[in-house]
Amino acid sequence: MRFFLGNVLPYLAWAVFLLGLAWRTVTWLTRPVPMSLTLLPGPADSSRRAALMALELLGFRSLWRGDRVLALTAWLMHLSLAVVLAGHVVGIATLGGQFCWFGADAATSAALSHWLGMTSGLLLAGLLALLGLRRLSIAELRRLSAPSDYLALGLLLAAAGSGIALRAACGTDELGNPSCTDLVQVRAYLASLLVLRPGEMPGQPFFVLHFTLVNLLLMYFPFSKLVHLTGGVVSRVLTLRPCPVYPTPAGRST
Amino acid sequence: MNVPLHLAKEQDVRAMGLEPVPGPERPGKLLAGLTEVRDSMRSMSVMLETCVKCGNCMRQCHSFLGTGDYYNFPAARADLMRKLYRRHFTLSGRFMGRLAGAEDFDHDTIDRWATYFYQCNECRRCAVFCPFGVDTAEITIAARHILTSIGVVPKFMQAVAANLRRTGNNMGIPKPALVDSVEFLQDELKEETGREVPIPVDKQGSKILYVPSSADFFTNVDTIFGAAKLFHALGADWTISSSVLEAANFGLLFHWPAMREHNRRLKETARALGAEMVVQGECGHGWRAARLGSQWASGPIPFRLLHVLEYAAENLARLPLKRLEMRVALHDPCNYVRGGGIVEPPRRILRAIVEDLVEMTPNREENFCCGGGSGILMDEMMDVRMKLGRCKAEQIRALGRLDYLAAPCSICKAQLPHVFKHYGLGDVAVGGILDLLGKAIVL
After folding, report:
1. Which of A159, A253, B60, B253 has a CA between 20 and 30 Å from the CA of residue A172?
2. Domain spanning B165-314 has what CATH number?
């Protein structure tokens, strides 16, 4: 079991995630766009188009135009998710030393890393729960939602929750370094996965739980509405494309 | 369930070149249509699959706000299609069924489609507020075309399409009647202005082909008067054509082959006349079909294509104008702002010709639809239409006293007087912008 969860599942999960998402996205892109559905008044040139795209993707511009509470909740949720993901990469790679790049000493950096990880994790979980409650409390939205909508939310929440538990169970020593497990051991294990020579998975129960949930989430991702990661871009591009120009410029037939 | 629409009879469906599908075979044919549309229209699959059901569109949709009906909540409307789509085209839907939001046909599926895809005005306001730009109008358009492919067509749409096919216009005006009508209009113009203001018909070699809405020859004659005075005052070399006397293109709203046919008619007519410029009259969805659809429907377009309001705004400085003492509000037709990019020209014109131009809230690309958009003008739908017009009525009421509501689209012009009467706003005059421009031009 430990071999399956530690040495097979991660590869399976990433393969399903990457291939699945690529398959879904490429399938969309191979389908033609017969009639332009540019949402007007559109941006005048390509730099403004790029700026608007950035504003949509990073600032949730259209959502903000409608329900501001929802926009803020959703934006903060995605932001905390981004911080958590980025924190995993740099925090594990540097063993909590990422803030040394900005002049902190090792202990301060580890403490900062711990604090930021904990805060953004809690924020993520809290906002996910809030979005779930919102879904349940608006009658029309509750009627529209299928179990799969809650599953996506639930898996994210479980992954975040187990991560928080892992961090809490470990605690920190007086220097701010994780005290119960070894970040070193985790880093070595993840590195071994990356170079395709998988070593043994650390046995800390919360780590096993967290790691397994994340892998399950990755496998569910391409088959759920979480594909809005790429679908949102593909869809948004449709509404931002330049309109046809008449008379049709020479050499352009489609 | 009871579909509030009158549907076309079998022989009428056959006359459109379609084979009516008997009840038991409908689900299979509908799925075939869904497959075809999925493979030929990127927006449908990506938008159905990307929606996260956040619900932001609910309070932005005048159809939901006016009817309070769950299925008129845009994401729920799209879900009518998404449930089948998931069940038949996605892995999660096939294996997890209802757990993944997938559902197969039930007794009411097709009736529910016919009911609710004809309570969406295809106004695209939801797309403005959707975080991903998911445009429920695309889903509605797809659904209506699929319904048409199985022979489920509103009688109203079928009758309009039959007229369009026979005569090149929605009203079914044949050339002799057009010539009579134009003579009469020219007499009226002479009486009013004391001058000859011609409305040329089929004038070979004209630089400009003007494509009016055919309703301008019956109910909205002031609109065609305005166009005639505009071209006359500018000394333009223009004509209307008896073969394409219609800016509207109902095919967009329920049957793509009909849309492409009408669009090709436009291109061929312009080519046969030798026109360098095609100017489209006051019609919302027709402008969208021409502006965004011509390339797809008819291939490369050899002429300049612009809207009469763009044309008038471009030439505003050259027009001899007087100012009308009126308090006027502008209603932005959905397919001008969101679907066709005409936002400022109507404002520039109105500011030049009326004393007091007021903006309603919201306006421009956030404006609410009149409730008749996408051809929901059927008499039998009057109750629903009044609910769809509720947001518009509230916007107008908030403006206080108005002399005139400028609604430069034939569908808006047909729908809004009913809405105002229904909501006790009866004395607001509704008409086009060309109507006012005609009155402001000093000949």
Report:
1. A159
2. 3.40.50
**A13 in a structural domain:** no
Number of domains in chain A: 1
B101-130 tens-digit pLDDT: 999 999 999 999 999 999 999 999 999 999
Residue position matching structure tokens 């604090």: A115
Write down the domain spans for chain B.
10-153, 165-314, 320-440
User: How many angstroms away from the CA of B35 is the closest CA of chain A?
Assistant: 12
Q: Which residue shows structure tokens 């009627």? A: A143
- What is the predicted pLDDT for the residue at A175? 55
Structural class in CATH, domain B10-153: mainly alpha
CATH, residue A89: 1.20.950.20
Choose the mutation target among A235, A245, A254 for the interface with B, i.e. most B CBs under 10 Å: A235
CA distance A217 to chain B (A): 14
Contact B396, B424 (CB under 8 A): no
Half-sphere exposure of B25 (CA within 13 A, CB side): 9
In a domain, residue A29? The reply is: no
Q: What is the pLDDT of residues B310-319, one digit of tens each?
A: 999 999 999 9
A198 cis-preceded (ω within 30 degrees of 0): no
Give me the interface pTM, i.e. the ipTM: 0.94
Residue A185 has pLDDT above 70, yes or no: yes
Cβ neighbourhood burial of A88 (10 Å; 0-12, 13-18, 19+): middle
Closest CA to A134 of A78, A73, A59: A73
Note down the domain range covering A196.
2-8+61-239
Among A144, A178, A57, A229, which Cα is nearest to B80's?
A144
Which CATH entry fits the domain spanning B320-440: 3.40.50, 1.10.3210, 1.10.3470, 3.30.2310?
3.40.50
The H or E element spanning position B158 is: helix B155-167
With respect to residue A91, please indicate whether it lies within any of the assigned structural domains: yes
List the one residue out of B265, B278, B353 whose CA is nearest residue B313: B353
* pLDDT for residue B74: 98
Q: Please report whether residue A235 resides in a domain.
A: yes
Q: What does the longest C-alpha to C-alpha distance in chain B come to?
A: 76
Taking the C-alpha atoms of residue A214 and residue B65, their distance in angstroms, rounded to an integer, is 40
Residues of chain B with Cβ-Cβ distance to A60 below 8 Å are 131
pLDDT above 90: percentage of residues in chain B: 95
- Residue B374 clears pLDDT 80, i.e. is over it: yes
Best B132, B260, B334, B361 residue to mutate vs chain A (most A CBs within 10 Å): B132
Fold match between B165-314 and B320-440? yes
Beta bridge partners of B356: B327
For residue B279, the surrounding DSSP H or E stretch is strand B277-280
Q: Does A85 touch chain B (CB under 8 A)?
A: no
